[in-house]
Amino acid sequence: MANTRRLPPLHSLRVLEALYLTGSVTRAADHLNVTHSAVSQQIRQIEAWSGRTMVRRVGRQSRLTEEGESLARVAREAFDAIRHEVDRLPLRTRRPVSIAALPIVAAEWLMPRLPDLLQSDTDVSVHLSYALSDRPLQSEPDIAILFGLRESLGPDDLPLLAGDAAPVCAPAFLERYGRDPVQALQFGPHLHDEDLRMWPDWMDAADLRPNAEAPQPQIYLEGSSLMKSAALAGHGVALCRLALMQENLQAGRLVQLSTVTTDRDWVYYARSNATRRTDSSVASVLDWLAGEGEEVKT
Q1: pLDDT tens-digit series, residues 164-206
Q2: β-pairing verdict for 55-58 and 61-64
Q3: Domain 94-163+266-296 adopts which CATH fold?
Q4: 38-77, pLDDT tens digit by residue?
Q5: pTM recorded for the entire structure
Q6: At what angle do helices 36-50 and 10-22 cross, to 10 degrees?
Q7: How far is C-alpha 147 from the chain's CA centre?
Q8: Hey, which of 93, 161, 281, 283 has its CA 20 to 30 A from 124?
Q9: Local structure of 252: helix, strand or coil
């Protein structure tokens, strides 16, 4: 039976990666600790395998063609992924509970609480990483902390934090507008993350109209963490999830400009990997998360 997922020779891929990294056949041979002719032989082998020219001569130098560079980049990424996984093998043998959380949840809510979990349950170890909503995770974590509509949650999903959002800004920013929240909201720059519906929804809920005298400045940022940083730096007014801003609000680093909120039907929630859900360590972490998030489930 023919293999429908053909792969090029591994040694040839290593040579392509080395050429990509070093820029010449001689340096690639030194990098791999092989002879110049061995590198040339592997290049001929992958060219015969693919039917494409991978390397061309430019004067006295050998350069990757467009096809060669494209395959070399993919090989580089694949080898890096393997190297990374090899580095992680000792961590995997310790069987930590892996939690992937949205960056702002990891930084503002989960990280400050982790020491309490580890002190209360010494049998549990945790590996925390980011869950990036714009691309799939490399491997499914034991627990992912995500954001979505409450009505879309599954029966095993665990609500943690309310998604209510209200406008906040730095005290120095509010000073520029005479400490008048309405002036700051109608004339100051609005900070946006990727969810552009939020400001129009909030303005409608607050019965405020945009500044009619001049276009209101808008600043667009990638992700809630950058938006929070911009608000702390005094660059404008941000619609932030109040559950994640409590420390900054209580410390006076941010000021809430209105009691009107939006997105009351959205929540941060924990979703567990079905194949690991009954593991005692994962169950212990889920119980701890449930206790931490209890007060904001309503």
Answers
A1: 999 999 999 999 999 999 999 988 889 988 778 889 899 999 9
A2: antiparallel
A3: D-Maltodextrin-Binding Protein; domain 2 (3.40.190)
A4: 999 999 999 999 999 999 988 878 889 999 989 988 998 8
A5: 0.62
A6: 120
A7: 13
A8: 161
A9: coil
